[in-house]
Amino acid sequence: MDEPPQNKIALVTGADGGLGTQVTLALLDSGATVIGVSRKIQPASTGGPSFIALAADLSSPEKAKTLVDGVASRFGRLDILAHLVGGFAGGKTIAETDDATFQRMLDLNLNSAFYVLRAVIPHMRRAGSGRIIAIGSRAAEDPGPGVGAYSASKSALVSLIQTVALENKDLAITANVLLPGTMDTPANRQAMPGADTSKWVQPASVASLIVWLAGEAGKDVNGAVIPVYGGGL
């Protein structure tokens, strides 16, 4: 029987984005309590008694630890981490990519994950269980020209999550990463007007997969790198 993550405490980073909103709603529908985090999130973004919106910046280890420790202290535990924070930059070759752009991709797609994971894992290990799901990108395994900084940062994220899985397999803690293709979000539609959106990945589909991995049915999936390419396969 596929048990949903009912009565679980879930931390969702990037909770007010095109994907984050869907993940938050899906987890709430499954019966979880969701702490939604982003820099500018508002309580009205999702609402409901089981949703807590926290405006926070995960750009430094101190800020990430303060956030995670505060959530764990308030609720007594932290069962699920859905790390959705990320960013995109493209259009230049490696030879043309400036230092600031490369560092920004590392900060958004890798460093933020590292800071949150380092803060979350000790709480999950003390509890003896936990589910970690991160959002990577198809570009992590299928890079293309003009997106070198983005692809490299997402590839490093995959390695990071796989290492977390190996280091915590002694307990009931799983860590998996999803690699979606282009997702059908308002931001992507605005950035790519005229694109064939019929082949894009629906955020609700990714959200459903995250809920499944966070539930009882996903307990045996660990260290997986899961492609979600939609019609763009």
Structural features, described:
Strand 1 (9-13), helix 1 (18-29) and strand 2 form a beta-alpha-beta unit. By secondary structure, the chain is of the alpha/beta class. The protein is globular and about 50 Å long. The two termini are 30 Å apart. Strands 3-2-1-4-5-6-7 form a seven-stranded parallel beta sheet, with helices on both faces. It has one domain (9-232): Rossmann fold, CATH 3.40.50. It has six helices and seven strands, in the order E-H-E-E-H-E-H-E-H-E-H-H-E. It has helices at residues 18-29, 61-75, 99-127, 148-167, 186-191, 203-214; strands spanning 9-13, 33-38, 51-55, 80-83, 129-135, 172-180, 225-228.
Task: Lay out the secondary structure.
Layout: E1 9-13, H1 18-29, E2 33-38, E3 51-55, H2 61-75, E4 80-83, H3 99-127, E5 129-135, H4 148-167, E6 172-180, H5 186-191, H6 203-214, E7 225-228
Parallel strand pairs: 1-2, 1-4, 2-3, 4-5, 5-6, 6-7
Short key terms for the protein model shown above:
233 residues; alpha/beta; Rossmann fold; 7-stranded parallel β-sheet; 7 strands; 40% helix; globular
Short description:
With 233 residues, the protein is of the alpha/beta class. It has six helices and seven strands; from the N terminus they run βαββαβαβαβααβ.
